[in-house]
Fold this sequence. Notes:
By secondary structure, the chain is an all-alpha fold. It has helices at 13-32, 55-76, 83-104, 106-115, 118-129, 133-144, 152-178, 192-212, 217-235, 245-248, 267-273, 298-303, 337-359, 365-372, 374-391, 399-423; strands at 252-253, 279-280. It has a two-stranded antiparallel ribbon with strand order 1-2. Helix 2 packs across helix 8, helix 2 (55-76) crosses helix 13 and helix 6 crosses helix 8. The longest helix is centred in the middle third of the chain and has 27 residues, at 152-178. The two termini are 32 Å apart.
Amino acid sequence: MSTVPAVKPPRLTSLDQFRGYTMLGMLLVNFLGGYSICPRILKHSHDYCSYADTIMPQFLFAAGFALRLSLGRRLEAGGKMPWGRALRRILGLALVAVIWYSFCDLRGMIDKFNTQDLASVLYSQAKRGWFQTLMHIAVTSLWILPVISASVRVRIAYAVASGVLHIVLSWWFNFVWVNSAPNGIDGGPLGFLTWTVPAICGTLACDAARARGTAAVRSLALCGIGVMALAWGMSCGTVLYNVPLARAQSTVLPAVPSGTIDDSGDRDSIDAFRTTPPIVAPAPGVTKLAPDPVLPSLERLRAWDGGLVEPPFVPPPDAMRRQWNYWMMSQRSGNLSYPTFAAGLSLLLYAGFLGACDGWGWTLGIFRTLGTNSLAAYLLHDIAGWTVAIWFPESSPSVLLTLTGFACFTASVYAVCRFLEWRGWYLRV
C-alpha cells in the first residue's frame, strides 16, 4: 500500500520566482500605466498585446501549474482526488473576488444603486465589476478541474475545444457583447474559455518540470516559441479588416483633447483612439467594430493583399484604419490569439526561471517574497495605490516624480509582504 510521505516535498523555486516576477510586473504596469507620460507598451491595450497585457496570462499559467502540482502530489501519494477541498478553495477565491472588487469600487456601486435598479447594478457587476483577475483565476480553475489529472493529450484537446467554443460563442454574440457598455474586462464572463490555454500550458510545464527537472528547459522553451508563432499566425487574420486607404483618408480632424471620450471609464480604450495630430475621422460606413468580426466576408478575403500583421508588441493602426475584430490580440475581448501568444511567452519565461533557479540556484529576494504570498501582494497593491496616488498625481509630467512614486508604491507592498513572510503568515484561500 502507498503511504503519504512524512517529509513535505520541497517547493519548486522556479515557480515562486516566476510568480514573483509576475507580481512585480503587475505592480509596474498597474502603477505606471495610469500616468500620462507612461509609454503605451506599459499600458493595457485592447487592440494588440502590449507588455502590460502579458502579465495577466502569467497568473493563469501559474494557477494551472500550482493546481496540477498540489493535486498531482496527492494522487501520486495514493490519495483520492480531493474534489471537496479543491472546490472549497476555488469558491473561496471567487468569494474573495466579489467582496474585494465590490469594496474597491464601493463609491461607484453606491452611485449605481442611487441611479439604477437592482437588476441593472447586478448585471453590470457580473459582466464587468466582479470579473477581474481573481474571478478569472477562480472560474478558469473550476473549468479545468475535471481534466487536471488527465493525460497530456486530453488536456491539450480540452484547451483546443475550449478555444473553438469561444470562437463559436464570439461569432454568435460574445465579441460584440463584451465590447459593448459596460465593457468586459479580461474577456468578460466567458473569458475562462481562452484563459484555459495558459492554465493548461501551466499544467504541462508542471509535468515537465517534475519529471525531467532542468533537462526540460530546452523543450519548454521550444514549445513556448512554437505556441507564440502559432498565435501570431492566428492573429494575421486581423489584416483582413484593414480599411481601404481611400475610405480611411476621407476626413481629417484635429487631435482629440484629453478627457473628451467616455468609454465606461476605461482609460485604455481612450488611448486606443488618440494619436498624434491629425487623426482620421470615421469614413462613411466605417465603425470601430467590424460587422463581420469573427468570420470575414468573401469580399474581405478577396481584397487581402497578402500582408501580414505587425510583429508582437508593435501597436497596430487605429480603429479607423483597421476595424476591431476577433483575430486581433485583445485583452478586453480575450480573443484566442492573445492568451495563446501569452501562454507561449509564459512557457518561454518559465523555462528561463527553471534553468536559472532550479539549475543554477539563482534567486531574487523580492521575487521570493512576492511569489510566496501573491494573494496578499495582489490585495495590498490596491491599498498602496490609493495611498501613493495622493502624493504622486497621475497627471504629473515629471518622470522623476513618477518613478519616485513607483518606488514608494512597490516598497510599501514589499515591506508588508516581507513582514508577513518573516512571521510565517501566508494569505491563502
